[in-house]
Design a protein that fits this description.
The protein is an alpha+beta fold. 51% of the residues lie in helices and 25% in strands. About 4% of the residues have low confidence.
Length: 205
């Protein structure tokens, strides 16, 4: 029996070390979890403070200028959606259809500054055999909306917001040519989100 005492003692020390290590690890994990919980709590408090400060800033801005920041965010989406839709055609036929719809929806005429800037009249040529040709289908022209940076220029008494925006858009063709343009759009948007006026201006003019 005495022969096994040293072995039992070593085994006891070994097991005690394992138990102590497990307990220490468990304690460390608990402390870490508590620290993580505190960090998350402070982050949430910081977010709440920032939101409260932003709400106060927005309220002051509204009282001084009449600008409702959430309203401008909504109007920005309306302008972006409009421009993105205008520049989503693929063929000459689609271009013509979208142009006609735009004229009807926003009461635009052929003399519209917006049409002349972003959707000019598509010239169609017909040969002696009766075949029709246009630049879009002949050269494989494509157009894509990139972005628009809008600026509020006026807040009307009736709640109408007036905007000016710098529109970045890109044209390309099947030959690999690509050009990026920046032009100007102006519009009035009602309190209900209706686009009341729509104009465009070429920066190159």
């Amino acid at each position: 029996m005495k022969k096994f005492l040293p072995f039992v003692f070593v085994l006891f020390v070994f097991i005690s070390g394992i138990v102590a290590g497990v307990m220490a690890r468990s304690s460390a994990i608990h402390v870490y979890q508590q620290a993580q919980s505190k960090v998350q709590e402070y982050e949430n408090l910081l977010i709440q403070a920032k939101n409260q400060n932003q709400e106060k800033e927005d309220d002051i801005l509204y009282q001084v200028t009449g600008l409702d920041t959430s309203r401008k965010d909504r109007d920005d989406d309306i302008i972006e959606d409009l421009l993105s839709d205008v520049m989503s055609w693929e063929t000459g036929e689609e271009y013509q259809q979208k142009r006609e719809s735009l004229m009807q929806d926003y009461d635009l005429t052929e003399n519209s500054r917006f049409l002349k800037t972003f959707m000019p009249e598509l010239v169609v040529a017909t040969d002696q055999a009766g075949n029709s040709y246009n630049r879009i289908d002949t050269y494989g022209l494509h157009i894509s909306f990139v972005n628009v940076d809008t600026y509020l220029t006026n807040v009307g008494d009736d709640g109408t917001y007036s905007y000016m925006g710098f529109v970045t858009w890109r044209t390309s063709d099947d030959l690999g040519n690509e050009i990026e343009h920046t032009d100007v759009v102006t519009c009035d948007i009602s309190e209900n989100g209706d686009v009341l006026t729509l104009n465009g201006y070429s920066v190159a003019e």
